[in-house]
């Protein structure tokens, strides 16, 4: 009972935090520039967390996350710009289509492992991008011009729901199924876990939220073009998850926040930024291959001295 | 059960961690807002800040940095001559990494952090569109030097982006000029089009060229496309060759066009080739080779070989500063600053609305890339130049008025 | 006529893929690592060759040899610094490191010389030979020739020399190889040296043939070469050769049918189909999963 109260208490805190920022925005304390950074932070958190469930929890190595984001972005844009649907409906449409795409990619993942899977997801993401590039209905290379509908409320709601669903999923029976695949697929299989099913579920949920992020992204930047969703975008998302810790939700959230801020400060130095990123990636892999937080959560840092802290 | 509760606790603590981190970020943001707000208001009285949101890195960096260099030269000249209405001009350059989202961010930063009076918008049309709404919302007059797509100033529903202007002519005009040149000067009947499919610029040109050449009585015997960053064009060129065209129109950027021209000649396509301002770069000659480039033509904004006195003055000044001959992007960047200067002087203030009005009313303004007036769609009505490559040099062929 | 010409186009494109794929397949064969940085070593080779020819006025063959030597050294450094520690780490950690190395090389080059493309000077005369109405440039014959010679040389090294025998042993079972007195570290380094030298050679040849080089030129050919290696059966040297040629011809056919915009998609579709249907590729051996 007590712990459940803590949970609701924190939900309340989140809402208070949201309200405070909202008041600051309406009061003009946070101008457009900071609002934009905050929204990008939210988008990156959603992307990081949605990739975390695929890589961190289920151990399926996907480097084509930008492809799902593109699906969400384009389909939500079609919904608002071509069909005139309201924005929340559009987000849902983008997310559902992205989830379907995730389902489609998830099915081949039944047969592929490790780096072969990685290459295949990269291939899928490129194919998705090339399809958008060749469809004139969505503007082809010129892209789609989109009205700005995203705001702090949508972005925050997106993050809130994403974290809520994925954290609870991880802690459910299904989540443990996924973790067992990450730890040892053959053993999990032998224990009677339907590994195929859980892999596909993880891919689908991950792409659903990547779709949400894509939808909010599309309606935040006025124009989307296929070039936006190339390899580099996928690698950017990958860096959040890897740096934060493969298997740590709070780790990927913190990494996403941190790197968004760093990226905003380094915007004048794009080459240096990429050099720093890649060096960090290499060094982290060499000296801490599980990422900064590993599979631990930030909360476990406060639990010294308690029994059995290592088990989740 | 106990485990379930622990897990819920985890879930809640994740939320907490988000909150803390978010709050920290928000706090630090707040601090800087106030600082920058204070500093910019104190210095805005004696300096006119012009933001330049340009592609300084990324795939089309050469256009953005060319425009930036041209603008820098213009600002230097203006400041040496006493500035605009006695105020010095400061150019605030921001890199948008040739990326839409970064272009939006850069525009927001220029508008709200640097509080610029006017902006030079990005070089490519897509990136300009990514900044157009920011300009409208913040009432900051924005001029793109080389965003040639029609929808930069005019939205799909026919409305005009009030605060967005351009110094260059638009794609349909270039396509029409090229088509007329092909028909009347080269006598082309059966033409092929080979366009860069990854750029809206090339597609726009291809469409208007096709329309005009068909109106002139020509037939399009082959219509092909390529994707930017390709290196092997031989298979498609073989297709074009078998259609036997007497003229090939290749709208695209020099990085690929150089290779296309080279490979086309290798495969034995001897017909005249023609392109547009995207070809204009010294690298084109190195990539294609001077010999392969013979019998090719481009439409362009201006020619550094134009004997006109003001143009030669600009070419000399530019060569003195950067020790290279200015290309069209340099000239357009330079002109963009003078275009803004003219409007700010006529507006008599640094107020966004007044400058916007003055820009829209520009009449017979004489600049390096031509004399122009602005039409109701915020497009300058100006002439285009046709150049021919002869042994690797651009030779002035003719000037075409709209 | 047109189809003969297209076949020629396809083979000359395919031999470039094959040349890069040879290095890929060797490295993968021995340490089971998708060396993402291979495409970037290819890019470095192109630039080294460019500076050798344009700045130091060397001829084609000296430039080729310098590029191969320097790339071999770079390959060994990459292996020693970045990959060696990860030999017993997870495949994912190794792959992420490879991506990191790839990004690092690209951005370091961009940092020092900018992202703008460079045009290769003409070092080899290029004549068009007309056979049955198809134009074949002498350079594309040269590329195909170099690729075949290198493949045979490689096949000889792997199958007839002592170091080749060591490579095969390490690839089969590194622990057993070590017990047999094989210096595993040196063998792996030698593999990287040979693979990277091949990438460097491919870079110079690519530059001479296609003229344009830029810091991101290695990304797509690198991926395509990987597709070619997988297609041919990863780890197999003739497989890489055949995979490269097949991929080149397929891509050309896709363009020749008028779907040039779908060309890259075609390569990835082939990749995914091969991975799903016959992961061992054309020449590969089926391996059973070890528990």
UniProtKB/TrEMBL annotation, chain A:
The chain crosses the membrane at residues 7-25, 37-55, 62-81, 87-107, 114-132, 152-170, 197-217, 237-262, 274-294. It is found in: Cell membrane. GO terms for molecular function: branched-chain amino acid transmembrane transporter activity. InterPro entries: ABC_transp_permease, LivM-like. Its main location: membrane. It is a multi-pass membrane protein. GO terms for cellular component: plasma membrane. Pfam families: BPD_transp_2. Keywords: Cell membrane, Membrane, Transmembrane, Transmembrane helix. This is Branched-chain amino acid ABC transporter permease. It comes from Ureibacillus yapensis. The lineage of its organism: Bacteria, Bacillati, Bacillota, Bacilli, Bacillales.
TrEMBL record, chain B:
SUPFAM superfamilies: Periplasmic binding protein-like I. One of its GO terms (biological process) is amino acid transport. Pfam families: Peripla_BP_6. Residues 1-25 form the signal peptide. The keyword Cytoplasm does not apply. It comes from the Bacteria. Keywords: Amino-acid transport, Signal, Transport. PROSITE patterns: PROKAR_LIPOPROTEIN. Residues 48-392 form the Leucine-binding protein domain. Belongs to the leucine-binding protein family. This is Ethanolamine utilization protein EutJ.
TrEMBL record, chain C:
It comes from the Bacteria. Gene3D superfamilies: ABC transporter involved in vitamin B12 uptake, BtuC. The chain crosses the membrane at residues 6-26, 33-54, 60-78, 90-112, 132-158, 188-210, 265-284. Keywords: Amino-acid transport, Cell inner membrane, Cell membrane, Membrane, Transmembrane, Transmembrane helix, Transport. It is a multi-pass membrane protein. InterPro entries: ABC_BtuC-like (IPR037294), ABC_transp_permease (IPR001851), BCAA_transport_permease (IPR052157). The keyword Transmembrane applies. Belongs to the binding-protein-dependent transport system permease family. LivHM subfamily. It is found in: Cell membrane. The lineage of its organism: Bacteria, Bacillati, Bacillota, Bacilli, Bacillales. One of its GO terms (cellular component) is plasma membrane. This is Branched-chain amino acid ABC transporter permease. GO terms for biological process: D-alanine transmembrane transport; L-alanine transport; L-isoleucine import across plasma membrane. GO terms for molecular function: L-isoleucine transmembrane transporter activity; L-leucine transmembrane transporter activity; L-phenylalanine transmembrane transporter activity; L-valine transmembrane transporter activity.
């Amino acid at each position: 009972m007590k712990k459940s109260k803590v949970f609701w208490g924190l939900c309340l805190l989140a809402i208070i935090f949201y309200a405070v920022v909202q008041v600051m925005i309406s009061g003009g304390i946070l101008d457009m520039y900071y609002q934009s950074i905050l929204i990008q932070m939210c988008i990156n958190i959603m992307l990081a967390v949605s990739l975390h469930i695929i890589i961190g929890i289920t151990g399926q190595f996907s480097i084509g996350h930008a492809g799902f984001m593109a699906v969400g972005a384009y389909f939500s844009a079609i919904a608002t710009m071509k069909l005139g649907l309201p924005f929340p409906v559009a987000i849902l449409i983008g997310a559902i289509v992205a989830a379907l795409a995730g389902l489609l990619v998830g099915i081949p993942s039944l047969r592929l492992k490790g780096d072969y899977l990685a290459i295949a997801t990269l291939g899928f993401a490129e194919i998705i991008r090339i399809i958008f590039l060749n469809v004139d209905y969505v503007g082809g290379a010129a892209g789609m011009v989109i009205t700005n509908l995203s705001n702090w409320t949508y972005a925050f709601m997106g993050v809130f729901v994403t974290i809520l669903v994925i954290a609870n999923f991880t802690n459910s029976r299904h989540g443990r199924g996924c973790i067992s695949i990450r730890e040892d697929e053959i053993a999990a299989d032998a224990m009677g876990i339907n590994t195929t099913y859980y892999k596909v579920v993880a891919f689908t949920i991950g792409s659903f939220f990547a779709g949400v992020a894509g939808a909010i992204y599309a309606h935040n930047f006025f124009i989307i073009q296929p070039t936006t969703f190339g390899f580099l975008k996928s690698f950017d998302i990958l860096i959040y998850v890897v740096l934060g810790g493969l298997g740590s939700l709070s780790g990927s959230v913190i990494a996403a926040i941190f790197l968004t801020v760093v990226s905003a400060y380094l915007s004048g130095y794009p080459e240096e930024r990429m050099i720093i990123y890649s060096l960090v990636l290499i060094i982290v892999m060499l000296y801490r291959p599980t990422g900064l937080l590993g599979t631990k959560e930030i909360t476990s840092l406060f639990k010294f001295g308690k029994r059995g802290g290592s088990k989740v | 059960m106990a485990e379930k509760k622990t897990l819920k606790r985890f879930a809640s603590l994740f939320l907490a961690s988000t909150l803390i981190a978010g709050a920290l970020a928000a706090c630090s943001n707040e601090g800087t807002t106030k600082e920058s707000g204070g500093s910019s208001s104190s210095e805005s009285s004696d300096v006119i800040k012009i933001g330049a949101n340009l592609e300084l890195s990324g795939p089309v960096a050469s256009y953005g940095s060319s425009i930036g260099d041209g603008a820098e030269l213009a600002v230097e000249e203006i400041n040496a001559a006493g500035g605009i209405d006695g105020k010095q001009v400061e150019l605030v350059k921001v890199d948008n990494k040739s990326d839409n989202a970064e272009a939006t961010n850069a525009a927001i930063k220029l508008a709200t952090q640097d509080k610029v009076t006017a902006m030079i918008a990005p070089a490519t049309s897509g990136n300009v569109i990514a900044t157009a709404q920011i300009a409208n919302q913040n009432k900051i007059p924005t001029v793109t030097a080389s965003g040639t797509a029609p929808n930069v100033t005019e939205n799909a529903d026919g409305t005009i982006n009030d605060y967005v202007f351009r110094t260059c002519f638009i794609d349909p005009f270039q396509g029409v000029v090229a088509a007329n040149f092909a028909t009347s000067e080269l006598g082309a009947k059966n033409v092929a089009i080979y366009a860069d499919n990854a750029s809206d610029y090339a597609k726009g040109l291809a469409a208007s060229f096709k329309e005009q050449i068909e109106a002139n009585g020509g037939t399009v015997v082959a219509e092909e496309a390529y994707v930017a960053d390709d290196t092997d064009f031989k298979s498609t060129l073989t297709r074009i060759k078998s259609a036997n065209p007497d003229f090939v129109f290749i709208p695209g950027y020099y990085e690929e066009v150089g290779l296309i021209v080279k490979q086309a000649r290798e495969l034995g396509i001897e017909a005249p080739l023609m392109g547009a301002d995207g070809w204009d770069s010294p690298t084109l000659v190195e990539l294609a080779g001077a010999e392969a480039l013979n019998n090719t033509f481009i439409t362009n904004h201006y020619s550094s070989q134009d004997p006109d006195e003001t143009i030669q003055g600009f070419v000399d000044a530019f060569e003195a500063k950067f020790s290279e001959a200015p290309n069209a992007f340099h000239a357009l960047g330079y002109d963009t600053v003078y275009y803004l200067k003219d409007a700010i002087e006529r507006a008599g203030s640094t107020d966004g609305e007044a400058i916007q009005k003055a820009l829209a009313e520009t009449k017979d303004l004489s600049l390096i890339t031509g004399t122009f007036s602005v039409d109701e769609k915020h497009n300058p009505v100006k002439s285009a130049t046709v150049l021919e490559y002869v042994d690797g040099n651009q030779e002035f062929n003719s000037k075409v008025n709209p | 006529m047109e189809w003969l010409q297209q076949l020629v186009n396809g083979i000359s494109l395919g031999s470039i893929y094959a040349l890069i794929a040879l290095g890929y397949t060797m490295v993968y064969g021995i340490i089971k690592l998708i060396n993402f940085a291979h495409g970037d070593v290819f890019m470095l080779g192109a630039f080294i060759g460019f500076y050798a020819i344009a700045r130091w006025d060397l001829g084609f063959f000296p430039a080729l040899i310098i590029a191969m030597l320097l790339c071999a050294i770079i390959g060994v450094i990459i292996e020693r610094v970045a990959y060696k520690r990860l030999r017993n780490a997870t495949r994912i950690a190794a792959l992420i490191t490879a991506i990191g190395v790839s990004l690092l090389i690209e951005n370091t080059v961009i940092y020092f010389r900018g992202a703008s493309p460079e045009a290769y000077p003409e070092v080899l005369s290029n004549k068009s030979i007309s056979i049955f109405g198809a134009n074949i440039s002498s350079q594309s014959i040269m590329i195909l020739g170099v690729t075949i010679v290198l493949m045979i040389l490689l096949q000889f090294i792997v199958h007839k020399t002592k170091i080749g025998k060591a490579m095969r042993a390490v690839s089969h079972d590194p622990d057993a190889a070590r017990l047999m007195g094989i210096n595993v570290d040196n063998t792996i380094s030698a593999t990287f040296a040979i693979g990277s030298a091949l990438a460097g050679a491919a870079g110079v040849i690519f530059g001479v043939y296609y003229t344009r080089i830029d810091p991101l030129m290695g990304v797509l050919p690198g991926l395509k070469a990987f597709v070619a290696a997988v297609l041919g059966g990863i780890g197999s040297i003739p497989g890489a050769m055949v995979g490269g040629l097949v991929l080149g011809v397929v891509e050309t056919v896709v363009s020749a049918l008028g779907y040039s915009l779908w060309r890259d998609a075609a390569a990835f579709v082939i990749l995914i189909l091969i991975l799903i249907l016959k992961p061992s590729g054309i020449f590969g051996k089926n391996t059973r999963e070890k528990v």
